[in-house]
Amino acid sequence: MLDKISVIIPCYNYGKYLSDAIESALAQTYKNIEIIVVDDGSTDNTVEIANKYTVKVLTQNNRGLSATRNSGISEATGQWIFPIDADDKITENCFEQLLEKAKKENADIVCPGLQEFEGRNRSHRYADKNLTLEGFKITNQVHASCLYKRGIWEDIGGYDENMKEGHEDWDFWARALQKEYKMVAINEPMFFYRIHPDSMIRKVGAFHIKNRDYILNKLKIT
């Protein structure tokens, strides 16, 4: 039987973008997936939009991105997890290529290249190589929307719910690499990151040094 991929979509007042994320997941050439939308106490039409689709919808009081991802993953039934934010989207062959790469490289985590859209149009390509903890000591080497084995989330204790100012994915990947899980990347951009005034990328820069120090101190690495 084909491995199942659980797509986790946290959403907080991003109802106007949510359809793009859901529809890009539903359009995948790899069909053994489940989609879980977690509404983090939104006051817009997030739940109404999500309920239009054949997806699982969870609701909770506002707890932040890490807690919202954790809530979705705790309900997931797939062997693989793919988190994607409600304002982003993926190419239709994304899961097929990521899973093929994972099997070929015997990898635990596979990261697609990133293409920005709307506000600006930069691409972030990652060499077809293994990613190591050394690079993550300096900065986040990838982004949050990478395919990974569910067992990693269970092993390292999920996303750190104390991180309220972004970089929770940086922390997650660093902890996974510290435990020697294998992370690889694909050069081709298959993940589309929407640039808009409320994009996380516009907010986290001011907290880079603070969050880096927090991550390194927690992991007891220098």
Automatic annotation (TrEMBL):
InterPro entries: Glyco_trans_2-like (IPR001173), Glycosyltransf_2 (IPR050834), Nucleotide-diphossugar_trans (IPR029044). SUPFAM superfamilies: Nucleotide-diphospho-sugar transferases. It comes from the Bacteria. It holds the Pfam family Glycos_transf_2. Residues 6-130 form the Glycosyltransferase 2-like domain. This is Glycosyltransferase 2-like domain-containing protein. The lineage of its organism: Bacteria, Candidatus Roizmaniibacteriota.
